[in-house]
């Protein structure tokens, strides 16, 4: 589940509505729906045997095939699959249902960065009551940490997006660029490439908040600390400054393309070599193969560069499924969720659609790691991506209004890209607005 890109104007309108509703619901401690029974695995098993009807909101390409496979295995259960829109569109509808006290699905797809908003409003079932906390060893640390909010297990991970360096080997070979293992080497490659051909850039970045937070995470930054409705923001911590110190060299030196991501121009530049690399999530291979046909055979994958050569990584994108408290049959919904994200039958369907798993068993599978797509020159790219998943550092938190935070990023940090100036003042401005907004919405937010 990569992060879909919509217009910034639409994002601002939609996310403001979402966050306002989230804050109102959270501060009112609105739980909605019926309480679960006594809980436990036996309740889940009994519910699956008895059957019933549940509703599932998802936009994943594999959803329809997974639902069909589930219903074949559990013929007494009917799953109504609804595509309520991608990310912010779905989240707006979901939060409106939470606020109204009705209309929410039994199970919903929610990206990791948006989960805290719904967890804070007490809209999600704590799956610990069904023993799902015992599934911890089934998942990699990053995704598992993202579904554990406030001491509750509020979902099960589906996919993950450990970062990696995707690079065009043809371009790297043409200009004698080394595959960088450190960010200093990456900057050196950027300078060498752009000096050789001013129309070519090491990468693109026009101001993507998801990328920025992933990079701060990888640098060791933990700028967001959340405890219920209380939050502390420090976008001047050591990790944040470590990232800007490197990335400023690229932005101020005009060494990155500012072509908007996911635009036709962006895909074209990835295909013709004008953008020579991307640092992004492990879901990217499917995007390149499907949308950058001209790059076939040229692209390769390497570990994310680090600051000192010590392997460390972060996540970019990905999400989970959750059970809503409004569900009239929470045990049945939990049973479907467990099958969806923990059964091999379901995960195999997900992998066939190009998904990158969060489950350790599949990541460690010899068959999965041995895949050598011709698009990547026969490289066993999953070996690299799996190592990246193992190296994701823990302890990252998103704000309870992260969707809104992302929406104002272009007007703060994003301005640095258009002016080719330091990113750090933009982080200061971003923090100031986030602190102000959070307090206006009734959260207790302090800045450092």
Count of individual helical segments? 20
Q: What can be said about the biggest beta sheet?
A: 5 strands, mixed
CATH level 1 class label of the largest domain: Alpha Beta
Strand-pairing-aware structural class: alpha/beta
Helix content: 40-55%
Mean pLDDT: 91
- Quaternary structure annotation: single chain
Detail the topology: elements first, then pairings.
Elements: H1 8-27, H2 41-50, E1 52-57, H3 63-73, E2 77-82, H4 87-100, E3 107-111, H5 115-120, H6 141-146, E4 148-149, E5 152-153, E6 156-157, E7 164-168, H7 169-174, H8 183-196, H9 209-218, E8 224-227, E9 230-233, H10 238-252, H11 264-272, E10 277-280, H12 284-291, E11 299-302, E12 319-323, H13 330-342, H14 344-352, H15 360-363, H16 366-370, H17 381-390, H18 402-408, H19 414-419, H20 424-440, E13 444-447
Parallel strand pairs: 1-2, 1-3, 9-13
Antiparallel strand pairs: 3-12, 4-5, 6-12, 7-10, 7-11, 8-9
Short description:
The chain is of the alpha/beta class and 448 residues long.
Structure description:
With 448 residues, the chain is an alpha/beta fold. The chain has two domains: 8-160 and 318-370, D-Maltodextrin-Binding Protein, domain 2 (3-Layer(aba) Sandwich); 164-315 and 395-447, 3-Layer(aba) Sandwich (D-Maltodextrin-Binding Protein, domain 2), CATH 3.40.190. It has 20 helices and 13 strands. The model is unreliable at 2-18 and 25-37 (pLDDT under 50). A hairpin with a 2-residue loop joins strand 8 and strand 9 (230-233). Helix 3 (63-73) packs antiparallel against helix 14 (344-352), helix 9 crosses helix 10 (238-252) and helix 13 (330-342) crosses helix 14. Strands 2-1-3-12-6 form a five-stranded mixed sheet.
């Amino acid at each position: 589940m990569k992060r879909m890109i919509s217009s910034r104007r639409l994002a601002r309108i939609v996310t403001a509505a979402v966050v306002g509703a989230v804050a109102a619901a959270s501060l009112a401690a609105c739980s909605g729906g019926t309480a679960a029974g006594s809980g436990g695995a036996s309740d889940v098993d009994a519910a699956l045997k008895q059957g019933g009807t549940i509703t599932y909101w998802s936009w994943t390409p594999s959803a329809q095939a997974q639902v069909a496979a589930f219903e074949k295995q559990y013929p007494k259960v009917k799953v109504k699959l609804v595509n309520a829109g991608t990310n912010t569109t779905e989240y707006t509808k979901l939060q409106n249902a939470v606020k109204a006290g009705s209309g929410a699905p039994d199970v919903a797809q929610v990206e990791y960065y948006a989960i805290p908003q719904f967890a804070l409003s007490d809209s999600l079932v704590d799956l610990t009551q069904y023993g799902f906390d015992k599934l911890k060893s089934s998942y990699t640390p990053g995704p598992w940490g993202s579904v554990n909010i406030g001491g509750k297990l509020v979902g099960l991970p589906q996919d993950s997006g450990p970062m990696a360096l995707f690079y065009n080997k043809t371009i790297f070979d043409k200009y004698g660029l080394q595959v960088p293992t450190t960010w200093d080497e990456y900057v050196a490659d950027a300078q060498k490439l752009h000096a050789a051909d001013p129309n070519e850039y090491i990468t693109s970045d026009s101001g993507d908040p998801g990328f920025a937070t992933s990079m701060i995470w990888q640098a060791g930054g933990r700028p967001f600390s959340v405890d219920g409705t209380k939050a502390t923001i420090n976008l001047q911590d050591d990790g944040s400054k470590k990232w800007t110190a490197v990335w400023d060299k690229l932005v101020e030196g005009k060494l990155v393309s500012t072509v908007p991501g996911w635009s036709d121009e962006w895909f074209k530049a990835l295909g013709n070599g004008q953008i020579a690399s991307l640092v992004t999530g492990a879901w990217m291979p499917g995007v390149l193969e499907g949308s950058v046909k001209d790059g076939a055979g040229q692209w390769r994958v390497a570990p994310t560069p680090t600051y000192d050569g010590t392997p460390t990584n972060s996540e970019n994108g990905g999400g989970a499924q959750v059970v809503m408290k409004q569900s009239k049959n929470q045990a049945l919904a939990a049973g479907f969720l467990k099958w969806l994200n923990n059964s091999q039958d379901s995960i195999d369907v997900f992998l066939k659609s190009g998904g990158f798993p969060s489950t350790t068993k599949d990541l460690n599978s010899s068959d999965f790691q041995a895949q050598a797509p011709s698009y990547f020159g026969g490289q066993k790219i999953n070996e690299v991506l799996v190592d990246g998943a193992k190296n994701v550092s823990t302890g990252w938190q998103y704000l309870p209004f992260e969707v809104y935070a992302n929406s104002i990023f272009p007007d703060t940090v994003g301005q640095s890209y258009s002016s080719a100036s330091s990113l750090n003042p933009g982080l200061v401005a971003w923090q100031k607005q986030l602190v102000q907004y959070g307090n206006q919405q009734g959260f207790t937010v302090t800045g450092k």
